[in-house]
Amino acid sequence: MSQQVSVASANAIVARCEAGGLCDPAIVRAASDDDMRACGLSRQKIRYIRSLAEARIDFDALRHAPTDEVIATLTQVAGVGRWTAEIYAMFSLGHADVFAPNDLALQEAARDILNLPERPKEKELRALAEAWAPWRAVAARLLFAYYALMKKREGIR
Question: Which domain holds residue 38?
Fold first, then answer.
């Protein structure tokens, strides 16, 4: 829900989805597009949520899976890219050695902290983050916190 919308908008959409029961995959599979639009979901998000509900992923099993397996499983779902899978592994599963180098906040924080002349691209930041293994998620959380202070605003949901 949080992609490409403000934190406040994402929170409102999530609250409406929860109130409408749209957190249960079976209910999502049975819901009409109108039901989903009433929660504030765009056509694209409806497509992605349906894809996720239809994938029937065993999220309990993901909790114990290696990060590479988590990413491979999640990226099979329409609308779930590597960034989303990495963020999920980091924040929802608590994996300690995962990093999302395509995240703008991580790139900007790394640029500032490391005094780089420009924001590092995904490939460059992925290489830089290798030095932080096996605690790359800890480094990411520090960079997210630093970015929030830099921007003096709320971070990700």
Answer: 1-56
